[in-house]
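ERR on first pass: missing label on line 2. Operator R.T. fixed the label and resubmitted. Corrected input:
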Amino acid sequence: MYNEEINKIKKELETVFNDVKTKEALDTLKQQYMGKNGSITELSSKIKEVPNELKKEFGMSVNELKNIFNENHERISKNLEEQEINEKLNKEAIDVSLPGTKIEVGSAHPLERIIESLENLLMSMGYDVVEGPEVEKDLYNFELLNLPKGHPARDAQDTFYIRGDEYLLRSQTSPVQVREMLRCEGHEPIRIICPGKTYRRDEDDATHSHEFTQMEGLLVDKDITLGDLKGTFEAVAKMLFGESRETRFRPSFYPFTEPSVEMDISCFNCNGKGCNLCKGTGWITVGGAGMVNPIVLKNCGYDPLVWNGFAFGFGLERLAMLKYGISDIRTFYVNHDIRTLKEFDRREY
Amino acid sequence: MAISLNWINDYVPVKDEDKVSLANKITRSGINVEKVTTTKIDHLVVGEVLECIPHPDSDHLHVCKVNVGTDTLQIVCGAPNVRAGIKVIVALPGCILPDGDKTFQIKKSTIRGVESNGMLCALFELGLEEKTEENYSKGICELPSDAPVGENALAFLGVEDTTYELDLNPNRTDCNNHIPFAYEVAAVLKKQVTMPDVSYKELDEDINDQVSLEVLTDNVYMYNLMIAKDVKIKESPEFIKHRLEVAGVRSINNVVDISNYVMLEYGQPLHFFDKDVVGDKIVVRMAKDGEKIITLDKEERDLIKDDILITDGNTPLCVAGVMGGLNSGITAGTKNILIESAMFNPYNIRYTSIRLGLRSEASLRFEKPLNYEYCLLALKRACHLLEKYADAKIVKGSISYDKVDKTPKVIKAALKDFNSILGMKVEDNDVKVTLTNLGFAYHEKNGEYEVEVPNRRQDIYPQKEDIIEEVGRLMGYENIKPTLPLIRTKKGVYRDNIKFRKIVSKRMRTLGFNEIRTYTLISEEDNNKYNYKFNPSIKLLKPMLKERSIIRQSLLNSVMEVVNYNLNKKNKDIYLYEISNVYSEVDNEYIEDTKLAFAMTGKYLSNTWNSLNYQTDFYLIKGVVENLLEYLGLTNRYSLKLSDNLPKEIHPKINSEIIVDGTPIGYFGKLHPNVTKEDVYVCEMSLTSLFTHKTSDVKYSELNKYPTVEKDVAFVVEKSVLAEDLVKDIKSYGGRLLTNVKIFDVYTGDKIDENKKSIAYNLTFEDKTRTLTEEEVMEVFNKIIDNICHKYNAIIRDK
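pass 2 clean. output:
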């Protein structure tokens, strides 16, 4: 029964969706077939007239029609939605090649970068970071460091005094070491580094600055050797200038160390072949060091028969100049151009 | 100042050494050879002019036949003094001559049709003299008649040489002198030093009959005198002139040159007096304050009681160690010389020479401890040279005053000390060989060395480390194996408030500020700016410049210099900060304060091609301060209040003082239009003070599970009412249920009275234990409105 109608509707459903291009057309179609007076709805209401033994077959056929309709409806509906979204996306198109809006984060001063690199390494090796006053006693800056009054290396020409010959602007960070040794009263081993500002009566030019920055290290313990100093320096040199750097010591002189050495690294510019940067020697001096002079240990309350140790010092401007290729020391203190500063907003290597 | 290796060869054989590799060895041993220069010219020989006829096609050129030993060459020469019979310097074809910074090569050529096979040279053409008009007009160099034809001309002149420029450590300035340096060379090459000839013939007359000596001060350690008679003053021989020139000393005449020559050999300065002016008596004493002397440079000098003075008993003759008097110096007419060789208290010489501004090669040497063994030796050496090169006759004997302590310095060190301090393998034999090479006498017993330090090594302090260094540096520090100290491991920490400072610094960078560093020393004038609670400032006793004469108490002036620098460079968006210590003086104590200063102007966030930007204003800098303080854990513990006590550089109406736990620690605000026309906002605060306000770690707090109720209200109040005061009152009337008050709009304009402003608040009500009912919220809300309206005479806008 009704096979004719069923087949007719089935046939219609094969083509009727093909022309649907809008949501409205789809809704109309739904109304036409599945609505209150839709052809499928009407057909299904005819079940009352179908004899009982054929009801099942009729029901299945009508359900099949409904399924066919729904499947097609869903497919077309999805397509239309997708189409709609695509249109919206197309409308939203922008010129992605225009510059991005930069989130500006500030940069650390090049000296601060060097200081933090050194601190991170040396703190991992057990050194505490300690600071001391820049207005310092002559006693700590010179006298206890084996630079008695009248010593040529402490010329009043070279140091900014501020009260008689008792107080001065420190000319080195070594007084921090003196303060630490005095604080520990000759009982405890010491491992410290002390970065900070220092001052000398130099006229400012490309390579001299009346204000500069040092970082010294002091290790006081038992049975320490010059080899331990060399190993420590090697770690610092490789961290700052790369694993392939070689290190060497040259004999030198400082009143507060004996023996004293200059610390050189193989030139990173020419890899030791000789160039302008290393003045043809293949080596660049980056700091001074030595075994703490027993006179200094004694002056600061440590028994040189029991204790010994080493001290080292770096001029941080020099390290930064080498590392970042800066040629004028005044760059660190004057005429900071914001464009240059921003270049330093980069991770440290 | 350089060392001549020709000269060194007089004491230790170095002729056959490769000079560059020798320099490297010496450098590695601790005496830094900075530059090696060799004056050597190949194909430059002594020639004899056999024949000299005028050039057929020139009025000033000559055509010469020159015997150069192996050959006779035809050479065209234009010098006015060329003539047959003279010995000359011939540059043969292939010879490369210096020409300023470049070189040029001599080639066979044809000069106006005549073949020429070389060049006859003037000294300036060899780079041995300056190229001056005078030297040019002298013509070619005429060699003495005994010059050997065909031999190397520079070697004959004694000027073929290699020189070392040294960069010495302050303890080894003795190596600026040739004999001490020769000992270093000998140690490196494992050779012996031969000391120079100090012999001379003595006259029968005795010095004691001709002069007497009286020393009246302890600041003289040793004082020796000798007399050389009948000197002939003339030019010095070429090798002395050359050697002095290498050392940077100008040649004057043979006598004066000899005193410098001997100083450059031993490091012992000498002084020559004209004996006939001085008379028969020398008295050495301290000067009197106000005493005067006219020195060699014709300046009158005021002396003080710390200057050592050489006199003839009445008249000052010489400021000891610093400069001679005009009256008693060597002149062209000097016949008889009284020679002084002395040792003085180095400190006196140092201070006198600095005070008088007369630092010479001699005074620099007197400032360091001298070797007493050389004091008389140098004197004898001078007599030897005066006899040889100035025809002097030496009066018998010398007069000496000697208070030098001659106890030898002896150092004991055990073999194990060498190993344990150097951290390298040192054997018994290493120590012995090295000490021998150094020329140090020693005894060894049971692995302990007793070393006698020679007096020439004044730099060595009598402790074992000094001897260990000597052995180590000559064995070579390249033998040290890098190790790390075998001590307990621990993690290092930032002491005191260093970490706190770094946290602040990093936060400032996160907030977009770039870190700068500026000088601590500024001018007094600049130090008067940004004066916020300044103490007395610290001035330098002797500043170099008035721009750098005082220790600053504020960083802001320097930070503003950087801002202005950038504005001039057309950089408009500027965000800078500096953290630095400042110092002041209170009751003779120096006070340190770590300050943070920052400045901001321009756009905070922007893009150049669209309208997005946020121009810096007061509320932005306020936000930065709030962000920083809250990041540090000080939420609800600070207040920011308009102040009329801020520095004159700050806008009186757009500013705030920063008060933490009731204590003012700094301020921020807009710069006064007197300071800059730009809209610049600055802040300065004391991190030292901030650090004293202890804070605790963040604690997790659970968010309210129950819904919140929000109500908005806008009050129209007098313009002078502070938004913050209203917030406080709203909070106090709102009680426990009111948990947040936000300002969401501020309005002034024609819709309300012109003396009024409208502030709109958003109020949040909640209870963490239950859902609030509309009725109870309204009850509180109405209570707030009533109270505020009553207290501030406010009306509600757009309710």
